[in-house]
Amino acid sequence: MSPATLAVAAGRPPREQGAPVNPPVVLSSTYVSTGVPGPERLYARYDTETWQPLEEAVGQLEAADLPALVFASGMAAIDAVLHLATPGTAIVAPRHAYLATLTAAHELTAREGGVVREVDIADTDAVIAALAPADGPAASLLWIETPTNPMLEVADVPALAAAARAAGVLTVVDNTFATPLAQRPLTQGADVVVHSVTKYLAGHSDLVMGAAVTSDPALRGRIHARRTTGGAIAGPWETWLALRGLRTLALRVERSQASALELARRLAGHPLVAEVQHPGLPTHPQHERAAALMDGFGSIITLRPRGGAEAADALTRAVHLWVPATSLGGVESSLERRRRLPAEAPTVPADLLRLSVGIEDVEDLWADLDQALRATA
Prior knowledge:
Layout: H1 3-9, H2 51-61, E1 69-71, H3 74-82, E2 90-94, H4 99-112, E3 115-119, H5 124-131, E4 139-145, H6 157-166, E5 170-174, H7 179-182, E6 192-196, E7 210-214, H8 217-230, H9 236-246, H10 249-268, E8 273-277, H11 287-293, E9 300-305, H12 308-318, E10 323-324, E11 334-337, E12 353-356, H13 362-375
Helix pairs in contact: 1-2, 2-9, 3-4, 3-8, 5-6, 12-13
């Protein structure tokens, strides 16, 4: 089945006479147990039947052989997967990535040994060279974002994953921006995929959750052990909300991607816009790569208005429909000047706005952006 169908059909209860169509929410912290524990459920920090439908659905969406593992947040999933790196080695990661991911990687290597080697993830040769440089420790983990946050660089996942596997390096792909509808990194050679379920998978800006997916039983066991020991578990109501949100993933992403591409095209010709980037534009440096490797170009746009950071801040105050807020992937369109956050990479332009396109009418979104650009010119 296609990912669009799986988003609706996966994780349903067995089709039995009188059975519910949707899985129930089980509110219990513990389970009846006597004697030596067996394979049955024992305690809700280890496993619950409320997680299972969502884990099955996300695993199937990513074409994994095993169910996903859900976490209390995207960062909880990222932290657990970063711990797959061998202490004393290098983690190779994009210089432009979710800033909390880079922070967590640097803190991990500072505590347990090793280094974080930041690279231009779109430069395939440079990334491969960073896996085993002449000086410094070799890598044990390659972390990929594609498209990157917020610069929208696109990586050659099959080439990087093949080179990493040949070097004995694990490949992890954060697939939050693209979603499984646009790319399925496990089928391109990645070992693990992570998601901030908070974003597109849940899609309504009303919960915080993460997920990690792999087809390797040993890797899944290590990630599961980290979740159990760390206690970074998802709550039952958040899990239920995330699964309900997942059911409309294809409709939401189809609408937001189409609108994003149309808005990017219009913004590229706007007299008050200095620069716009979107993988769907022929002017994007990795447009051909994105067209070859992805089934869609995503719903994120970067915009640099004429007038610098001051104009960018003014634009966030002048919009009426777009929501000035961090995060992304919700049904509502939002925008944010990323360098307002002190930890953002200094190579991100100070005037860059990250736009997350939602599902509103594209003409209304355009009218609001146009009036805001003119109001702040």
